Amino acid sequence: MPSAQLQTELDERAAQGLLRQRRTLETPQTPHIIVDGKPYLAFSSNDYLGLANHPQLIAALQQGAQQWGVGAGAAHLVNGHFTPHHQLEQRLAAFVGKPAALLFSTGYMANLGVVQALAGKGDTVYADKLNHASLNDAMLLSRATVQRYRHGDLAQLDALLAKQQSGSKLVITDAVFSMDGDLAPLPGLLALCERHDAWLLVDDAHGFGVLGQYGRGTLSHFGLGSPRLILMGTLGKAAGVSGAFVAAEQVVIDSLVNHAHSYVYTTASPPALAVALLESMTLIEQGDALRAHLQRLIVKLRTGLNDLPWQLMPSDTAIQPLLVGDNKQALTLSAGLRERGIWVAAIRPPTVPQGTARLRITLSAAHTEGDVQRLIEALHALAGKSEIRAATDRTPRPAGEGERG
Fold first, then answer.
1. Are residues 351 and 247 in the same domain?
2. Active site residues
């Protein structure tokens, strides 16, 4: 029976400490959650500004549903494109400093749509080896030639770009790498794209709302602007709601409207979400105090964990990965935190390279300094347990080694 083979594969994953399972939250997304009837202090969400349960967004969503209903009912190109969608696209484009923007239902769909629309047979896509799975899937579906360069290695990318003699060139990269928390060398990447006549698609899922002036994102953080830049930002992380957008030159957006399958052939997101996101944009733009508090928490965490037997990976962002190494050891450490009422997810291959299992600690402006101190104390307590300490491997992963699934 085919199901027997499936079960065998699942059993093998379980034996390797790789089996994924879901847990159900019984509360809104906040630092303090209830899972399976038990309360936890959570450090695993991407709600970086603490907006997912913000009363102003809840009120805006209620008002939006009252005025516009609960479903779009059609694709954007049929009759599912509502006034709030249009207003949000204009607001997003102006906010990130681009001529135009286009809404997508998810960041995954946005990446699929852009790469598939701008690259095909005869073209070449160049990708950082630690890019998000959505970018990896997008480049494979595009049917373009794929060239992957070592993580952040500008010299290797330069050499690869120089070899291409025909077809268009598209460089794709995360801005903030979601499992490592480090920043892509965007100024260098843009310089290469200018030199080699290439597009640069930047997935700013984890920078939008957090980095840059007024939370405009990683391009603002680096002070970058160019017609070659295509920005993808998600709206379910720092923005606290759902969806994604692509901002670029008008000709790029017009091309996506006509050729991006994940935009053309799907029902539009509910217009009420766009109403909530318009309110979220105001909170992001006025959120300097939230971002400053988040930065203080990052410094506190890194200072408090600098003498653990596990190594924090280099990151100045809200994503603070604690490198453990062994899959089962990472699970044991995560379970030890749960026993102390703290929720931190263990991340294992294929999401991260073999031998680099980790705890992915994510901070939110909704956390307090007391919350962070509690996590610091719990990890120090677990570091003293012999069964955990004995399996610890402090060898750091060389930059660019391995690939992300």
1. no
2. 178, 206, 237
